[in-house]
Fold:
Amino acid sequence: MAVITFSINGEPVSGRQDESILEIARQHNIRIPTLCHLDGLSDVGACRLCLVEVEGTAKLFPACSTFPSENMVVRTDTDRLRRYRRTIVELLASEGNHQCAVCVVNNHCELQNLAYQVGLEHVRVQYLFPRKDLDASHRDYIIDRNRCVLCTRCVRVCHEVEGAHVWDIANRGINCEIIADMHQPWGTSDSCTSCGKCVLVCPVGALIEKGATVAEMEKHRAFLPYIMTARTKHEWIARAIEED
Amino acid sequence: MATSAKPRVATVWLGGCSGCHMSLLDLDERLIELADRMELVFSPIADVKEYPANVDVALVEGAVSSEEHEHMARLIRTRSRCVVSFGDCATTGNVTALRNRFSVNDLMKRSYVELAPGGPAMPSTVISPLADTARPLHEVIPVDAFLHGCPPTAEEIWFAVDALLQGRIPELPNVYLRYG
Ligand code: SF4
Ligand code: SF4
Ligand code: SF4
Ligand code: FES
Structure:
């Protein structure tokens, strides 16, 4: 596999042709915020938090799903990118109903961590306080759409790893929502195997276990690269994954 | 700044649970130092009926949830030099905003009729009408600084109040940026 050399923030870096800018940046200890990306799942470029600048074009590129070319000049830390990242987190916060103080994943939440990373001391856009619903019809789990950030990790893990494809996205724009099967209560889904993978990969408190109380639920995601490596390379090695 | 030497400080309790004020009391012995450095001109823990003029620093707990809160917020803004959103409810709406998904009418019926078997009655005069939604303070008036947490820790409050009493807007280090 050909090796590409290029630069990130002025630092020369190299990686394989099939590695994304995000993967190569991480190998060189350059941190780029992410939300929809998860090691072990395909990349869809949904959240736009990982946007980077590439010299020679005004367009911004999602690092998780962009592959570098020889001599590319990439920047991850400009004022413009910092501004955009903060705005993205503000929009995510204002489009849902987030009350961290009473949330199951308080202190273990990727949206909270992003808010701290981008220095979100207050949200400058108006809070929408949308009326979203909660579905507790499943025996073991709950989906609370008030806290969903539409990263589609659940959709991908259920389709790509579990092979059940319970989840999908319905509607458009601000009305987007995650639905089970044919838009029915999760508990009535015939395709759900109750494996719990979607709950573990959900970055926020939208997919949760029943019975967990405030700040009690910590999600461990290392299982995913483990089973994906085992499945694709037949190597059973546990490796630590980066948890932001 | 008022002519008296000590900064005039107000603390206000809007749509919150008073937990932020409890956390203020968690300053413990530092309260004695504060008493020397400032004058408390309005607060739920001071017997003052009306929000005074020439306030230097106002710490405002809670979301803006009723007509009275909104009136108070505007009064605070016109009479205070520096207004601080004190805790998550003031900064994001937080728990107070949980009720935003219900109509005010449904809420009032639930609270004052369905859950009041003793003597159900809708309040008409004593309680200020609820606003359609509980909102963070900065959506109603301009705010100069934000304290986070439900409630903010005593350390964060101390850091901020110390800066404010020196006439500075606190630049809170990232360790204090914690929601929930
Ligand atoms: S999902 Fe995260 S950001 Fe949302 S309420 Fe829960 S802890 Fe807060
Ligand atoms: S529990 Fe498993 S099968 Fe059911 S929706 Fe989640 S990932 Fe899919
Ligand atoms: S439920 Fe969780 S994993 Fe699924 S889209 Fe929403 S935030 Fe992402
Ligand atoms: S992590 Fe790249 S777009 Fe979400």
The longest strand of chain B covers residues 55-61. Chain B touches chain A through 26 residues (CB under 8 Å). Chain B is about 30% helix and 20% strand. Chain B has a mean pLDDT of 94.
